[in-house]
Amino acid sequence: MEKCGWCNLTEAEKRWLLSDREYWAVYLADEQDYIGRSIIILKRHCGSLPELQMPEWIEFKQIADELERCLKTALGARLCNWSCLMNSFYKKDVPNPHLHFHVRPRYDKPVVLNGNVYVDAEYGHHYRLSKGVSIPEEDMRELLRLLKSNLHFSVSAGN
Amino acid sequence: MEKCGWCNLTEAEKRWLLSDREYWAVYLADEQDYIGRSIIILKRHCGSLPELQMPEWIEFKQIADELERCLKTALGARLCNWSCLMNSFYKKDVPNPHLHFHVRPRYDKPVVLNGNVYVDAEYGHHYRLSKGVSIPEEDMRELLRLLKSNLHFSVSAGN
What percent of chain A shows pLDDT beyond 70? Predict the structure, then answer.
């Protein structure tokens, strides 16, 4: 859809692509308040869960399975928090929601990237909102490399 | 599983059952901070999303579709927030997670139950944590009645 920013991601936004599948694309989130936090974006414009088609739902499960396995193996996540919220779209008078999921890996041990130590201070509790964490560009690149090299899909689409 | 409270719900906890399907049971949440908030509980002991079987995943989609439609139709929800978090289980040294999803309907207009008015003060934003809202028993009963009479599954299981 022409007026949807999620249908028209910029090259800068596409920089953190982890995997491009038939129906979904997976990106590292800009906000790395929980290391490895990612967004799974549907590649067509669709506004709610009930409007998802079954093949899209089935591929999402395959992605979730592999992404959660990868976050546990590559980063040591103990569990993952999954959510489909869509609240921000509804700030506008005429909302134009674009379906996406968030995954926040949760850790009982620190994660170390390039010698920098990241701690999940809220482990065992709901994720904290607006932590306003930013991580160095080089840690973001290391995270991308680490996750991409550990993500393995049995049937590959675009990536 | 013997030691899991979610596998062994008490009769008091089962009081707010909305729908009993083949793989999942749907209950009104005790905490009605967002009116119609419900929990969808897997009927077998399973600890994470990747361990879910595909037939369970497919039935969950059918439930989510119908529940979201019902919350929009019967209560006027504008959107729904879906999540699978599981954090509380990990407070224990030996976590014993039992898979469940939360749905929080979100409203741009007040909901009225038995003349009591409920407002979603955070509409357009992330749900607020620990609002500590409790609603009168008679409103809870009215909510159960309203949702049960509007939930229609094409193929019925237990309910």
Answer: 97
Smallest CA–CA separation between A87 and chain B, in Å? 5
**Starting at the edge strand that comes first in sequence, how are the strands of the sheet with B79-84 ordered?**
A17-20, A24-28, A38-42, A100-106, A79-84, B79-84, B100-106, B38-42, B24-28, B17-20
Indicate the angle between helix axes B54-75 and B137-150, nearest 10 degrees.
110
**What is the longest distance spanned by two Cα atoms in chain A?**
46
CB A120 within 8 A of CB A106: yes
| Residue B119 C-beta-side C-alpha neighbours within 13 Å | 2
DSSP H helices in chain A: 54-75, 137-150
Report pLDDT for A3.
85
At a CB cut-off of 8 Å and minimum separation 6, what does A13 contact?
A27
Q: Which two tokens stand for residue A87?
A: 């609240």
Q: Give me the numbers of helices (H) and strands (E) for chain A, helices first please.
A: 2, 7
Picking from B95, B96, B139, B100, the residue whose alpha carbon sits closest to that of residue B117 is B139
Looking at the complex, report in whole angstroms how far the Cα of residue A86 sits from the nearest Cα belonging to chain B. 7
Q: What is the pLDDT of residue A1?
A: 75
pLDDT tens digits, one per residue of B72-128: 999 999 999 999 999 999 999 999 999 999 999 999 999 999 999 999 999 999 999
Res A42: pLDDT:
98
CB of A129 within 8 Å of any CB in chain B?
yes
ipTM: 0.95
Beta bridge partners of B105: B80
Claim: this prediction has a pTM higher than 0.90: yes
Query: What is the average pLDDT across A36-62?
Result: 97
* pLDDT at position A155: 55
> Is A109 in the B-facing interface, judged by CB distances under 8 Å?
no
Using the structure block, give the residue that is written with the tokens 């504008």. B78
Count of pairs with CB atoms under 8 A, one residue in A, one in B:
105
